[in-house]
Backbone:
């Protein structure tokens, strides 16, 4: 996965997206932060282990000049989503060889901003109690995952979630 922005700024959205896609929150991280430590919200490269056993590799350095891209690789194929393409590649065994067969991924094109969709969800929740895609607990877990990535990168070690250090302070990137 390639993702833009810093670990706290863009990472929180990424961690929430991954939770929704894989229906599982993070359980551990192992990170390497950018060598340029002048930014208050660094980028980096890290592994993110989810509670359901899925492991995600994320590459999000600030120096990256590429659009965000999500590649989901499974035992039977791969899904690629970025600003320019949405493809589904199935791995078929033909004559004893694994052959990739590519097809357009059937997705609906959003005609509205994601922020407007989120606002509609919030209003519906307030008016009718309807379920939202992401609530306060999911937001807290996404922010906690950002903190774990920063701790892991700074201390060069695997960090398990939930974080238990009540004295941990993450400097604001604002």
Residues:
């Amino acid at each position: 996965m390639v993702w833009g922005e810093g670990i706290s700024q863009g990472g929180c959205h990424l961690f929430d997206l991954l939770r929704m896609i894989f229906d599982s929150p993070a359980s551990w991280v192992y990170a390497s932060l950018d060598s340029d430590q002048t930014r208050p919200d660094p980028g980096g490269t890290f592994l993110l282990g989810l509670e359901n056993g899925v492991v995600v590799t994320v590459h999000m350095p600030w120096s990256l000049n590429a659009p965000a891209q999500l590649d989901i690789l499974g035992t039977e194929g791969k899904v690629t989503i970025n600003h320019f393409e949405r493809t589904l590649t199935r791995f078929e065994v033909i004559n004893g060889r694994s052959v990739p067969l590519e097809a357009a991924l059937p997705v609906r094109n959003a005609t509205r901003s994601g922020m407007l969709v989120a606002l509609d969800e919030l209003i519906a929740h307030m008016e009718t109690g309807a379920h939202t895609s992401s609530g306060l607990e999911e937001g807290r877990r996404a922010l906690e995952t950002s903190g774990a990535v920063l701790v892991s990168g700074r201390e060069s070690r695997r960090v398990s979630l939930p974080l238990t250090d009540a004295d941990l302070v993450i400097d604001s990137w604002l």
About this structure: The mean pLDDT is 86. The first helix runs from residue 11 to 22. The chain has three helices and eight strands.
